[in-house]
Amino acid sequence: MSKNQELADFIWSVADLLRGDYKRSEYGKVILPLTVLRRLDCVMAPTRPAVWDRAASYTGENKDGLLLAASKLKFYNLSEQTFDTISSDAANVAKNLKDYIRGFSSEATEIINRYEFHLQIDRLDNADLLYQVVRKFAGLDLSFEAVDNHDMGYVFEELIRKFADASNETAGEHFTPREVIELMVELLLAPDDDRLNGEGQVVKILDPACGTGGMLSAAEEHIRKLNPRVRVNLFGQELNAESYAICRSDMLLKGHTAKNIRFGNSFSQDGHDGETFNYMLANPPFGVEWKKVEKVVRQEHEDRGFDGRFGAGLPRINDGSLLFLQHMMSKMQPLKKDAAGDEVGGTRLAIVFNGSPLFSGGAGSGESEIRRWIIEHDYLEAIVALPDQLFYNTGISTYFWIVTNRKPADRKGRVILLDARDQWTKMRKSLGEKRKEITRAQIGNICAIYRDALSIASDEAHPDHGRVKVFANRDFGYQRITVDRPLKLRFELTEDSLAQLGASAAVKKAVGGEAAVELLLAALKPLLGSQWSTKAEAWDAMRTAMVASGVLWPSAAPFQKALRDAVGVTDPEGEVQLIKGKPEPDPDLRDNENVPLSEDIDEYFTREVLPHVPDAWIAETRNPKTKETERFKLGYEIPFTRHFYVYTPPRPLAEIDAELKALETEIQTLLSEVTA
Questions:
Q1: Per-residue b/e over 580-602, b at no fewer than 16 CB within 10 Å?
Q2: Which of 381, 311, 375, 305 lies closest to 350 in space, CA to CA?
Q3: Exposed/middle/buried for 241, CB within 10 Å: 0-12, 13-18, 19+?
Q4: Which of 19, 116, 383, 641 is the most buried (most CB within 10 A)?
Q5: Host H or E run for residue 596
Q6: What's the pLDDT tens digit per position in 41-53?
């Protein structure tokens, strides 16, 4: 067991004190804020006396800057209480703890308030638990010397996971496995080593679903390894209050501007409106509906179009994944050229999706239009398929999308598909749904394949050739045509036909009421069992019978349709029905074909459709928006698994038969031993 795991388990052991007075789902309301408070307390300890001295010696206003300088941190605490003093006074523990919390500077106070911990202080005090809990945390050393920021991040993530397990929440909504983050960061940043190594570099990174901040921290660490002198500014937004507070406190402890981490829903409360970033990365929750913010999102889409964030389209209400991607892409820096003609600016981003955004939604749908916009503008650089059972809250397969507005010259107009689904190692112990992990060596291998993807894809002899495919942007587009075939009917009058006519509202209205319907049915009854090969013959026979009985023959279209529905029977050898001299399409035979963008739809239709259904034709429809007649709809999808499918022939029948016989023999042997 790792040191971080042991520390997280020790902290979580506070739950033993809470059991009975707190539900399992409520443990985190006590443990998480106290962990943050104790971390802040330990980190502040070396400079607390200096802060108190500076506060006492300076009586003027606006002394916040002086106190921050004395603390050598981005926060301070003016209370004379510490965890040591609070835990040494059992009679006044609640009073002293509240005083301690009130002593924090505004940045730290904003974080602590998100936990609403004041409610838990009173509850713990009333249950005679507060002193015991505080005393246990007071014995925990969370100073920088004992636990650095990197390890503290692991501890917080493990606590979040335990909290989610206890409350049956989804841990994957809070954080992403570290090896997945490392792979994602390396794929995102690897092509920019030269850019990041320059002097005076300032880099802005955004995660709009930042959780506890693991992705932001990993991106910063990677950049600082390349260039320790680079200035990295981290930005994020998070909807979950506990995760937000942890992330913001982590930024505070690392000396970042904590207010760059915003609280709220990224769709309805854009915390970084109008800003652009060099890099962005995110792992938004999979398949989460956006109904709560539908009004705001739809209004922005309709009113602002591409001047807003969601101009490309809106996906289905039950999956907001592609909204996150559009939100991020709206914050890409424009690509420019400097005086020397070199490209400057631009953005690279990476996002984790499940399989749905690759192909959900047919031609013309919101999802397809979003994919179309991304691919036609040459923003999609690559998609990397990951192993399944990699995340804590789901065992499904996941994918990295790498999107950028500054592709290298040799990758312009192309998209790389990289299959890394076999790059995993089985974990010794499962964590939720997570049973696999990607080793450091495998991360290196995936990144190497990604770096050399174009040469590997063109070299059939390369051992990783089967893992990489490179496509032109247009290869993902298709023209969706509707194939119609004529409606063919024969006609017959049966008991069911009469019953259908009798129940038809259109017939009742056309003939003038229930009594008239009865007369009509009586007039047609002598024709029961009759069959006709053409509509004209059937109509002539039924009209003659009705007139002979004194029943009028209604010529209104609703009656004619109801009559045909009742007596018409679809028949491949039947008469072709016409509308204004043209064959009427049979809705039951209607089909669709996806024609590659590179092909002419008529040539495709002639080659692939007509040999099988010679009487078919391509339907024409009227576009409700443009009012123009269309023969196809343009769509985009990325059928990743289809491109990497490898046919495995079935085993020979003789081999299967031999195996079955061997099993039968084994069963007989076992049975004989039982009955002996």
A1: eeebebbeebeeebbbeeeeebe
A2: 381
A3: middle
A4: 383
A5: strand 591-596
A6: 999 999 999 999 9
Q: What is the mean pLDDT of residues 96-121?
A: 92
CB 419 within 8 A of CB 385: yes
Q: Measured at the alpha carbon of residue 116, what is the angle toward residues 113 and 119, in degrees to the nearest 5? A: 135
Q: What pLDDT digit, counting tens, does each position of 305-337 carry?
A: 999 999 999 999 999 999 999 999 999 999 988
Residue 544's identity, in one-letter code, is T
Structure tokens at 372: 């179309």
Indicate the pairing of strand 231-238 with strand 202-207: parallel
Taking alpha carbons only, the member of 220, 227, 67, 213 closest to residue 152 is 213
Q: Answer yes or no: is pLDDT of 207 > 50.
A: yes
Q: Which of 474, 478, 520 is nearest to 499 (CA)?
A: 520
What tens digit of pLDDT does each residue of 360-373 get?
999 999 999 999 99
Please provide the DSSP assignment of 499-560 as one string: HHHHH-HHHHHHHTSHHHHHHHHHHHGGGTT-EESSHHHHHHHHHHHHHHTT------HHHH
Residues 176, 211 contacting (CB under 8 angstroms):
yes
Cα pseudo-dihedral 618, 624, 625, 631, rounded to 10: 0
Q: Other CB atoms closer than 10 Å to residue 565's CB: what's the count?
A: 13
pTM here is: 0.86
CA distances from 241 to 246, 265, 322, 486 (A): 9, 11, 24, 60
Q: What is the pLDDT of residue 171?
A: 43
Please say if the pLDDT value at position 167 is more than 70. no
Residues 6+ apart with CB under 8 A from 545: 523, 524, 526, 527
Taking 60 as the threshold, does the pLDDT of residue 547 lie above it? yes
Tokens (6 digits) for 599: 């092909």
Lowest pLDDT segment from 403-407, 449-453, 642-646: 642-646
What span, in angstroms and rounded, lies between the C-alpha atoms of 4 and 6? Answer: 5
Question: Residue 388 — φ and ψ, nearest 5°?
Answer: -80, 175
Element (H, E) at 33: helix 27-44
How far is the C-alpha of 13 from the C-alpha of 1, rounded, in Å?
16
Residue 172 has pLDDT above 50, yes or no: no
The tokens 């002598």 sit on which residue? 526
DSSP 482: E
Give helix 27-44 / helix 117-126 axis angle, nearest 10°. Answer: 110
